Amino acid sequence: MSKAPQIAADPAWFPYAHDAGSHTLRLSRVSRKALVEEAFLDDRWDRSAAQQAAHPVSDFAGLALPKRAPCFIWHTAFCGSTLLARCLDKPGTNLSLREPAVLMSLANMKRTQGAEALGRELGPVLALLSRPFVRREHVTIKPTNTVNNLAGDVSRLLPQARHLLLYSDLRAFLLSIAKKGEPGRAFARQLFTIFAMDGHAIAQTAPRELLKLTDLQIAALVWHMQLASLLEAARAVGADRFASLDGDSFLQTPEPALIAVDDFFGLGLGADHAKAVADGPLFGRDSKDPTQAYSAARRAEEAQQTAAMIGPSLDAIIEWSYGLFPSSPRPGAMPHPLLAN
User: Fold this and answer.
1) Strand 162-167 vs strand 138-142: parallel, antiparallel, or unpaired?
2) Which residue among 28, 95, 199, 326 is buried most deeply as judged by most CB within 10 Å?
3) CA angle 317, 168, 75 (to 5 degrees)
4) What whole-number distance in Å separates Cα of residue 228 and Cα of residue 340?
5) Rg of the chain, C-alpha, whole Å
6) CATH architecture of 68-324
């Protein structure tokens, strides 16, 4: 087994999993190419051929946090975050890490063991994730949306880091849930049970009353809960380190959106990179499964068809949910937008 100092010095050792019970990290030695080719760095990633190691998180407690803080893409799901992370990857300039499972484990550990337990392990994990493969390369991390409860902790630990909130408005989020059929509706209820552990007041509703709600009503609550967590973290971060971007605006006008994100993060990708990516194949494929064709036009068409199937109840659910969360931003009112509304 490789020793912790050797692993810490070699960015090819990627922390792919975390055991909250034993406070252990499992690591695989992989190439940069392997990291960026995977849609998600979670349990769907086959690492069986890679060299493996396991160490207590405490073995990396002395690993310094990076002088060049990573950038973070927080999101509300179904809003193009995987695609955006792919677009920002450029060898030697920026490494994009999509949904590391190790962060999901830490998010759940915070929910079950508390902030003190998280505080002992978040720093070493972020230090390991933030190591570039080459000098001066930036690192951008896109956690899964169930990790949104760590946004405030991350911003306090890394005071120089910049954070982007990529989101869909409530209507678009509900349509994304609905068009996925029963799996989408089940996913929304699963998200509610997870976010309910983060202390949202709505989660104190009696189970009997929650069971009376439709799947789309639950999904609407999930959207508001996500925004509440992220905007609370953003208020502590400040306007210079936090920005927002509407996912549909990104998909419809990718080139200016990519330039704006690049400038805000300070990655140095350049306008030529933004144009090449916007005109390239990424926007014609499904970002989660590149073997499948997809496009912004198809997304819009699917949304229109789904809205027609739901009917007037869609707008009724939206207005009902804003009655419960009156301070949630309406469309076009998200703070610190990168693109003009």
Assistant:
1) unpaired
2) 95
3) 120
4) 22
5) 20
6) 3-Layer(aba) Sandwich (3.40)
Which residue is associated with the tokens 């869909």? 168
Q: How far is the C-alpha of 27 from the C-alpha of 13, rounded, in Å?
A: 6
Chain segment 103-114, per-residue pLDDT in tens = 999 999 999 999
CA distance 173 to 187: 12
Q: Look at residue 335 and give its three-state secondary structure.
A: coil
For position 293, what pLDDT does the model report?
Answer: 77
Read off the pLDDT of residues 212-244 as tens digits, 9 standing for 90 and up.
999 999 999 999 999 999 999 999 888 899 999
Give the model confidence (pLDDT) of 311-321 as tens digits: 999 999 999 99
Kindly write down the DSSP assignment for every residue of 112-148, as one continuous string: HH-HHHHHHHHHHHHHHHT--SSTT-EEEEE--GGGG
pLDDT at position 238, please? 84
How does DSSP assign 72-98, residue by residue? EEEE-SSSSHHHHHHHH-BTTTEEEEE
To which H or E segment does residue 140 belong? strand 138-142
Segment holding 13, helix H or strand E: strand 13-19
Residue 12 neighbours by CB under 8 Å, 6+ apart: 29, 30, 31, 32, 133
* Cβ–Cβ < 8 Å for 129, 70: yes
Is 69 in contact with 130 (CB distance < 8 Å)? yes
Structure tokens at 11: 């960015």
Q: How far is CA 184 from CA 42, 73, 216, in A?
A: 20, 23, 10
37/24 Cα distance (integer angstroms):
26
Structure tokens at 221: 């609550």
